[in-house]
Amino acid sequence: MPKTITSLFLALTIAAVCFPAARATSQQPDLEALRAEVDDLAAEISPQVVQWRRDLHQHPELGNREVRTSRIIAEHLRSLGMDVREQVAHTGVVGVLRGGLPGPVVALRADMDALPVTELVDLPFASKETAEYGGAEVGVMHACGHDHHMAILMGAAEVLARMRERLPGTVKFIFQPAEEGAPAGEEGGARLMVEEGALEDPRPDAIFGLHVWPYHTGFIGYRPGATMASSQTLRIVVRGSQTHGAVPWGGVDPIVTSAQIILGLQTIVSRQVDITAAPAVVTIGQINGGVRSNIIPDQVTMVGTVRTLDAEMREQIEAGIRRTAERIAESAGAAAEVSLSSPLPLTYNDPELTRRMAATLERVAGPGRAEVVPPLTGAEDFSYYQQEIPGLFFFLGITPESIPLEEAAPNHSPYFFADEAALPIGVRALANLVVDYLGGDQ
Ligand code: NI
Q: Average of pLDDT values for 421-440?
């Protein structure tokens, strides 16, 4: 090998060995600059985010029926130059934004569905929509704030797309239908999104999501580990034997037996599980039996919900429900058939990811405005993504400071009100989580 070529080879080898770090540095994002850019852009597009939110609020759609919503979202993501997949899990939309620099893949998720609730909030853009639900005509309202979630995620998509060239990695935007549950007889929600490949090609390394909640506007609540409950639907059929209402000894009364079972069920959480370990709830929300005053029917059906935050306690409660219902029925000469749906999993925040991203949430919310909060007994199907990849789900306050929290209408109320001042904070929270996660800081 001629000497000049040898030395050139040597020089190149040295350069290759010595300069990858230098090359990486020149490519490495300036995190401080990216964060400042996120905050500036979030402020700049804030009027647009408010417009999206009002439009979505005025035109709510029930689960698996988010057709208009889905079209608006897909058009927006496409206008930002993303690869967009539509009709995932019926009406879901998945957009992929590839940053200009190499790096990990991170996903953001918003839910799209509204509820069968007639809006009673006095707003110029209040919903007047109606739809068919369970065989009846019902009002439809974004009574759980999913309109906020979508507008925030559309805003985060806009912000991050404008910074695309400087982003060290890929961002996946997951807009999911039917979080509140699919209509009877249909599949839907996060589980179906996962089944239909929302987390494939590319597979995210982590996922973030938020829910608006009646904390004061801009407050961010989060917690590591069990955050929202595992939920199961409970169904009990009590079979007796029909008789005249004036001659109860002529049969077996399933109504009195059901009353005893309902009271018996109350002792499971209050007497039989360690309530210092985690909260739990057993609720009967529906009871049907009988047709008129003087007939004791042969059957009563009860439907309820079980909420738990601990797997072992869930099994204990399930066994307690069966034992209580079956043996009380037996004591009356009746029979109880208990069925529990397979549990919607626990919303469980990966402790390491939560620890890593807490500083981001604190920076976005401001001093003392982001805190670890108690777990909620509500359930959230974000849990299905968290079963696949590490995830962090947090809460964003939407109650104006002027309203005491105990007076704020809860989610699902016809009076539910979400403050638009929280929108830019939500956009900043999601976009900053992406920048900090991709930038590998903390
Ligand atoms: Ni919700």
A: 97
